[in-house]
């Protein structure tokens, strides 16, 4: 039998979390409200302790362990946010913690997890491999596995986000939740639907790691053969049994978004919302950007975490700017003679495009002996301006490819 979760479980978790988890704020997103046609608020779990909602579920699970279980220690598997939540909860409760993380996990998440006192072991490249290793460690040592999403206490803890949303925005009509294994989405659905069954709840997955749509179609969890997304925090290959049963019953829809839209949403949240958000945390925002008319206001979008590697943030910002038509790489083949580069730069200046970087290539075997390939990175004001720049270069005889 799969354990279920009730709103009473969520309310009990809220009592247990008093003084532990922050009641994170709702912040209005007027830049999204204009598109939706009504109020849009961001539920800022990126401002939660340890940088994400995960402390809610991890502490709820661990505070209920017996003294004998606490003495055996805990083990977890995580790409970063659950690791930090478990490590922080363990340090607060005086429990030793071991965390299995994928090779290549974001360095700031690794450093923060260590900083909370957990022992880290690296294995594999995906959370599913880490889960297998964590379960084997639990079997061998007797440590208690703190699953990132597939346990009723975890789901109940995450559901406290839903209780806060109902208090902070009583007239909410739509709640949008980024989704990996499903613990956050399931918990919010339990909390909200018990009180306001009319509220539409939408889960959002990255297209490169979308296990829920196919699973919901057949009403049981189905594993993905492979995953590829920048949103590592929601890259989970198989829905959890506990959250899946709740989501199948309570959630109105699960949609998918691509990495380009996630990157664009992250840039807009940074630029317009003044919030640092990781790619997984921006998935809900990406869904609203994709199809604003599909979300009846007032809308609350859960921003689940802000633990992003600065190097990844640089790449995502550039990717997001490119997706928004504000940053382009232009490759131009032209005669290798004095004045060629100057003519190209003059054309770009006349089109009001800002040149960021220029590179020459002469050794490409595809080039003729008297040719040079110039790669120019330029800033533009948006898709229309980018198209104007390309059109001007074409009119002046430049052969341009974009990337």
From TrEMBL:
CDD domains: ACT_ThrD-II-like, Thr-dehyd
Signal sequence range: none
Pfam families: ACT, PALP
Domain ACT: residue ranges: 329-403
This protein's name: threonine ammonia-lyase
Family, similarity comment: Belongs to the serine/threonine dehydratase family.
Upper lineage: Bacteria, Bacillati, Actinomycetota, Actinomycetes, Sporichthyales
Cofactor: pyridoxal 5'-phosphate
GO molecular function: threonine deaminase activity
Enzyme nomenclature, EC number: 4.3.1.19
Keywords, in A-Z order: Lyase, Pyridoxal phosphate
Stretches that traverse the bilayer: none
Species assigned in the record: Longivirga aurantiaca
